[in-house]
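Problem: given the chain below (193 residues), write out its structure.
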Amino acid sequence: MNLPNRLTLSRIMMIPIFILLLSLPLDWGTWDIGAADLPIAHFIAALIFIIAAGTDWIDGYYARKFNLVTNLGKFMDPLADKLLVSAALILLIEMGLAPAWVVIIIISREFAVTGLRLVAAGEGIVLAAGKMGKLKTATQMIAIAVLLLHNFPFAYIDFPFGIIMLYIALFFTVVSGIDYFVKNWHVMKESNK
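Solution.
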């Protein structure tokens, strides 16, 4: 297994640790960050999320730079992103930091794109993420990181940057989903033959 695929696998392995930090009743204290308090367990979970999200950029960079792009990587990388983002968004609902309807739309888009990828894989076609998908992922990662940090550092000025970024991520999620289906609709047509 090459380095980019190992980084992707490490991202997947960080997800259970991230979930446990946000799910267990860990009372490690809080930090006053202005308009809110940031539990230390949430801060550590946010750091793990940011590191995991960073591996997405690093593995893609190395895969392209050293020509290490593999079909396994094309499959595992978006899957790792979807697992990480879905886990984070669901936990943000539980924490009262994200509206459920936004999360439902984002996760529904991810399922739809994954379904299209599975149909393509059945036809022997591997569909890589496009530029719109990468922008969607970047905005989602920023929104989630800021929300996990309880809007730090913007909580000091009481500016809802995290939720604004979540709505921007929602916009790019919907637009990139439509773009992905339009560009790859031929896969669905081919599968009906």
